[in-house]
Design a protein that fits this description.
Blueprint (H helix, E strand, L loop, with lengths): L3 E4 L5 H11 L9 H10 L8 E5 L2 E13 L2 E11 L8 H15 L4 E7 L3 H10 L2 E11 L17 E3 L2 H6 L14 H6 L5 E7 L2 E9 L4 E7 L8 H11 L6 E7 L3 H9 L6 E9 L1
Parallel strand pairs: 4-5
Antiparallel strand pairs: 1-2, 2-3, 3-4, 5-12, 6-11, 6-12, 7-8, 8-9, 9-10
Length: 285
């Protein structure tokens, strides 16, 4: 079979969604047309620096790249790499990767970032062979129902939750015990700010904790509480408030750093256990 590798700059979103759906038909988390659009937009999708393999003018394999700043470096982020089942075995992902590197370098990209499910051992090996190195390990959580086993009863007077701005969260980013992943970063949130619900707890007019969520997708994007105000029910109340505001049938918490025992223990205390693990991997260009 013959394949041509080209930029995805000129293909329609409909073509992209069709190929994406077929490539990930057996994936744990399925996305709708609108969810995919929001997902890649939030992650900084750059069609000019994304590439695909075409067979008879049909997109059969692809890598969708986002671009932005990560750890103070101009970064390309692999938003999604997939190949249609009937075309697997042709090493198309590797060919697309090799084709893309010179374009990424010419665009001034300093590093290539991706996340991969740990149980996908074939993909992990391929990326390591390309020179990617594991930078962090993440946990992800997916709950089919919007219910949690709350073990604390907090009075409304003690914890008053109000809408706040993204700037207030950014100014208190040190509440986080770890650096958010690409898709949960403030830059990613700002790309589609109107889709997010940003809530906080103020104590004596000072921010004590905040939660950023995306109601239509069920995504709990960031949850952070000042260290002095932990174990006082603020985290529970913020999470409960976020879940109550979700319009999706379920909710998810993606990319919790495995080293962040405070967050892992907090979620476990609510009966929320990990669905799986991912590697964050980086290749210096």
């Amino acid at each position: 079979m013959e394949f041509k590798i080209n930029s995805l700059e000129k293909i329609s979103f409909g073509q992209l969604f069709n190929a994406f759906s077929k490539a990930f038909k057996d994936y744990e988390m399925q996305v709708t047309h609108d969810e995919l659009y929001k997902m890649i937009h939030r992650r900084g999708y750059n069609a000019k620096l994304s590439f695909g393999a075409f067979h008879n003018n049909d997109l059969v394999s692809f890598t969708l790249n986002g671009t932005g700043i990560y750890n103070d470096l101009f970064t390309a982020y692999d938003t999604g790499t997939g190949t249609l089942e009937s075309f697997r075995g042709n090493k198309l992902a590797g060919k697309i990767f090799n084709h893309s590197i010179s374009f990424l370098k010419d665009a001034g990209v300093n590093q290539y970032l991706l996340e991969v499910l740990q149980h996908n051992k074939t993909a992990v090996k391929v990326y390591k062979d390309f020179g990617f190195k594991v930078s962090r390990e993440f946990l992800y959580y997916v709950l089919p129902e919007k219910t949690i086993d709350y073990k604390h009863n907090i009075s409304a007077k003690a914890v008053e939750i109000t809408s706040i701005t993204l700037e207030q969260c950014i100014n208190n980013k040190n509440f986080n015990d770890y650096e958010p992943s690409w898709q949960n970063s403030f830059e990613s949130i700002s790309r589609d700010l109107n889709s997010f619900r940003i809530r906080g707890v103020l104590i004596n007019s000072e921010l004590a904790g905040y939660c950023i969520s995306e109601p239509t997708t069920g995504d709990i994007t960031q949850l952070a509480v000042h260290k002095e105000y932990r174990r006082k029910g603020i985290g529970y109340s913020l999470l409960k408030d976020a879940i109550e505001g979700i319009t999706h049938h379920s909710f998810k918490i993606i990319n919790i750093d495995t080293r962040c025992q405070s967050m892992v223990s907090f979620l476990s205390s609510l009966g929320i256990e990990p669905k799986g693990k991912q590697y964050e991997m980086i290749l210096e260009l």
